[in-house]
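TICKET: design request
STATUS: open
ATTACHED STRUCTURE:
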């Protein structure tokens, strides 16, 4: 007997996801993203709307839905995903690299370095229509704070040429950011001299800290510096241009993140709609 057809009770907006087609270069992927973003904005403009790049819903703070047939952990994650947004950075490794990749060891390496790299992308300091305050100060990322315990850092697709889907980085209006997301992810995957390893529990703890403190959180500077220092040599041998990674270094040294820029805009505009208007472009 076929499954009973599901009938929706409510249709609630989550966000709009742009999926770029498979490309063989970072330039090709970014070109597709730019084209699709332009098309999306054109279509939305005809309906009186405009898309913005933001990692946490700026006014809603909670979503609850029925469990339905999901596993409990899938259900918990699905409810978090309704209010949190971010890019999935997908890389498929060459056969000779994937054949020697130890997934368990890779997971430990990701757990160690990804929180520090994620700190350089934090861009969701707004919650419930105002800056997010936690423990007496404005936090850097409601998204990372909410997602760190529930969301995986990476989803592995072994049946697709070992496609590796990285999830912790945050939304951006800058194509340069997305270029750097690919570069640091590739550097992490391809550098077999990186020795740091950590557990899932340590990653969750570290992400919670960086969500509140940004690059001032313990371990961020040393771990991000190690990878950024090594990336040009590691990626250069594969033909990647790393000159743009200087932008991440520029964030690490003074500790000023995209979240700080958003707060500055909010302080100027004093409204959520006014702030969001600054986050609608992609350049």
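STATUS: resolved
RESOLUTION: sequence designed for all positions
ATTACHED SEQUENCE:
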């Amino acid at each position: 007997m076929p499954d009973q057809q599901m009938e929706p009770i409510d249709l609630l907006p989550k966000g709009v996801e742009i999926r770029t087609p498979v490309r063989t270069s970072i330039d090709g992927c970014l070109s597709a993203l730019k084209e699709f973003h332009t098309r999306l904005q054109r279509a939305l403009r005809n309906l009186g709307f405009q898309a913005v790049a933001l990692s946490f819903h700026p006014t809603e703070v909670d979503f609850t839905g029925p469990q339905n047939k999901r596993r409990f952990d899938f259900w918990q994650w699905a409810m978090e995903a309704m209010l949190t947004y971010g890019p999935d950075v997908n890389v498929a490794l060459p056969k000779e690299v994937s054949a020697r990749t130890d997934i368990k060891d890779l997971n430990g390496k990701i757990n160690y370095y990804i929180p520090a790299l994620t700190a350089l992308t934090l861009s969701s300091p707004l919650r419930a229509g105002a800056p997010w305050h936690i423990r007496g100060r404005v936090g850097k990322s409601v998204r990372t704070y909410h997602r760190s315990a529930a969301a995986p850092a990476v989803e592995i697709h072994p049946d697709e040429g070992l496609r590796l889907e990285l999830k912790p980085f945050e939304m951006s209006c800058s194509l340069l950011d997305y270029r750097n997301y690919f570069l640091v992810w590739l550097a992490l995957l391809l550098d077999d001299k990186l020795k740091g390893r950590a557990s899932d529990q340590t990653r969750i703890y570290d992400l919670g800290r960086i969500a509140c403190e940004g690059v001032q959180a313990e371990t961020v500077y040393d771990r991000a510096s190690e990878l950024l220092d090594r990336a040009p040599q590691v990626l250069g041998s594969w033909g990647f241009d790393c000159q743009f990674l200087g932008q991440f270094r520029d964030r690490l040294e003074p500790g000023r993140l995209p979240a700080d820029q958003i707060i500055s805009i909010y302080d100027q505009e004093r409204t959520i709609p006014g702030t969001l208007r600054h986050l609608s472009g992609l350049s």
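CLOSING REMARK: Residues 53-268 form a domain with the Creatine Kinase; Chain A, domain 2 fold (CATH 3.30.590.20). The chain has one domain: 53-268.
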